[in-house]
Amino acid sequence: TDHPHLQPELFRPALQYPSHPYAEMLTRTAERYPEQEAILFKDVNLTYRELDALANAFANALLDLGIGKGQRVCLFMANRPEYLISWFAITRIGAVASPMNPSYREREVAYQLSNSEAVALVVQQELLPLVQSVHAETPALEHVVVVGSNPHAPQTFPPSFSYLVRTYPPTPRGLEAGWEDLIALPYSSGTTGLPKGVMLSHKNLVCNAYQSVATARITFQDRLLVFVPLYHIYGIMLMGLAAMTGATIVLMERFDADKCLQLIQEQRITILYSVPQVLAVLNDWPRLHDYDLHTVRFTQCGAAPVPPALARRFEELTHIPVMTSYGLTEASPGTHSNPVYDPQLMKVETIGLPIHDTRQKIVDIETGQIELGVGGEGELIVQGPQVMQGYWKAPEATAEALRDGWLYTGDIGWRDEEGYVTITDRKKELIKYKGFSVAPAQLEALLLEHVAVADVAIIAKPNEEAGEVPKAFVVLRSGYENLSEDELLVWVNGQIAGYKQVREIEFINAIPRNPSGKILRRVLKEQERRKMGL
After folding, report:
1. Residue-wise pLDDT tens digits, 341-361
2. Strands 467-476 and 334-337, sheet pairing
């Protein structure tokens, strides 16, 4: 296609970012658009005035518990209004919010609570027993607030969220947070082993909110359908967009095709936030055409590579443009997107162009020092005000990811002559299960704890429905040859969250490795693809 030539100086120019603390965005929006709907969820309908008041009340409760600046507070719940209230309260008092995936099991809960040294935790009722069971491993944890317990109960222990927001006054008494202060500590599955806390500052999240809003041109008139998890960096981004613009969040606990389509129609949704698997489900949904979807301006699709055929088919069926975009937890998250407001500039097979104030280079994979030209395949590196401060308590990993102010993304791709980037592979080997990152190394370490396992390699196996699923190749110790694949699957999956579950185990004689002992996953992957006839 003949693309109109971009005029670089007039495309995504540098922006001015007000250097105020993050939660100030909510304060300002509540002043400008007080009666605008902020959150709709089941039978809850909160305006910005109300969200602001509730966030202040909960902030006062947290201050009263003695939680102060820089202290970590973990959030452990599914999508619900209390999530946003807690998020803005924690960030308002200068504390650091650390989201946890509600499908975590004991081991993962204990790890994040102890690694972050969280002093407090806001947890939904159903997940409280999990937290209590790892009590001994989380000595720093002093306060637990329970969400969703009986709202009419008097003061309970641990205290209920509902009791606290009813008891504390909604007067603002935030702490002065600095622009460079830490505000969020989401955990990201790094290249090696255990997840790492990603240190994000007020500056990171405020700048990325402005960058994202400017790139997608979001206003207070937009109505956003949000089923992507709020504990994922994608969800964190959406809370910032709404707080900054006064757009309305129509929240779902999880994706459900009919419910999603029904909400688009009833709530006149203007932006649908999706992942590739959601588009795949909707493309094949038998009742897709029973709904009126004309209010949707576009769907932003990210979190995993978007197959171009999938995006094109979705657009043909629904007439909704797909804005392919790219980001990573380490960049708060957005760095690239397609100019969705101008169909002539859309290249759906790419992640688009860098957003405002973001620079990119493709560098050679070996040294990371040599910049490659058009079409050269290498590692994507980026620079911008949204790039993290580093990994929590992991200086070596930080030094590897941040070099001379550039963030090394670990993703492999190439750029065309206009700067659009196509991502082709992940250097990091992360398995993308329905948009969630699963680190093979973490699963390998766990399987090696089993007495019968001598050696193991985990690869991403292509899967129609989930994108990729973890498959394990296992070498058994002598004397354990009668262990079955199923017994081992049950053992490993009982210890980890649903999205990380190993879907298949194959016993083999040896794991292919390079001279330095690194697993040659590519060899196993290619074998598997051949077996599948791909």
Report:
1. 898 999 999 999 999 999 999
2. unpaired
